[in-house]
């Protein structure tokens, strides 16, 4: 039963732009729906907590920035399973896939210990923000509740990576949409209180997320044992200890992948930490802009995941020419859609911001930042889709170096210089939170250009090797 869909994937080979876009869209839309369901967690948290208090909204912005940095960095390492499993799936090596999944669980066990310690003791990171005592205490409460949900999140990432690798993103989507349906009432109960539970504010949405993450992990474990597409891999039919050679192979790809994710996210995290010095209102406006950017990001991310799956399967099946064409068409599709999104958001930004907050001061702070996001997003789409295509080739070290130079050097370093007007020569419109966002946009231009050039070289090298 698990073999028929694989034949369908291979039979769909085409070199036309329209044909490739259809193939990519067929895998991308379930990823997009699922990712939008997950990002809706953040949107719902921001909207609900924003109506609870400005202090809790600021704590949410600061705390979520730290959590996302830890979560993305660790799950980025586990995401190495996707290109590895996709190439094995294209090569029809089912037993090897099962072994890689078991090794990924051992790796997740180590990573969850590291992540838990960072989240439960976030003091050193909060010291950088120089946050007021009330904001600091609220943020610590938020992060400590999330720390207990991290192990479940890492386990679910393994399920997600494998499902995407074998071209079954709907299996992930259904669970994520179901989680969203639970999130709204659970958030309402825990944030605002009721039925004997006191109002928890921002930490309430963290408790809701942790509960849902464990429910998702349990559902994923059940799916591994009951869904036909996973049966040939025999994931739980064999016990194994860590195999250091396989662990080394996962880490060889996973560490640079995790670092690239970490660099990308921490460039935003440290923006939030530094912007916290500019006041609660400015930080709240930044949180709205960042949340909007995250929502927009889900479409190119989904296209990148779909493109990576198809490229890796083509490479595993010995079809490098098809892989190169799919990569190029995936990037083109993501950038074209991003241009349309940017134009729509720019026109509708007053309406969008009003949906986030009733506070006029926060809305004024958010308005110019969201305008920058509409341009920022186009280059964000370019870099993330290209990066995913490179990961399908099992290439991650050079992209990580490109990220470090662009996002940390130009984005964060340049943002600090602009935001705080280090040299004292800048006009007012280029300083403060706007300075950070302008520098971050410039960094994505550099990252996107560097990654697309490198993808061309890597794909050409594969073609020559095949020839």
From TrEMBL:
Biological process (GO), any one: monoatomic ion transport
Record keywords, A-Z: Antiport, Cell membrane, Ion transport, Membrane, Transmembrane, Transmembrane helix, Transport
Membrane topology, record value: Multi-pass membrane protein
Superkingdom to which the source organism belongs: Bacteria
GO MF term list: antiporter activity; xenobiotic transmembrane transporter activity
Subcellular location: Cell inner membrane
Main localization (coarse): membrane
InterPro entries (alphabetical): MATE_fam, MATE_MdtK, MdtK-like
Membrane-crossing residue ranges in chain numbering: 24-44, 64-84, 104-121, 141-159, 171-192, 212-233, 253-275, 295-318, 330-348, 360-379, 391-416, 436-455
UniProt keyword Ion transport, yes or no: yes
CDD domains: MATE_NorM_like
Pfam (any one): MatE
CC per GO annotation: plasma membrane
PANTHER family with a match to the protein in the record: FMN_FAD EXPORTER YEEO-RELATED (PTHR43298:SF2), MULTIDRUG RESISTANCE PROTEIN NORM-RELATED (PTHR43298)
Protein name per Swiss-Prot or TrEMBL: Multidrug-efflux transporter
Organism: Paraburkholderia eburnea
Taxonomic lineage from the root: Bacteria, Pseudomonadati, Pseudomonadota, Betaproteobacteria, Burkholderiales
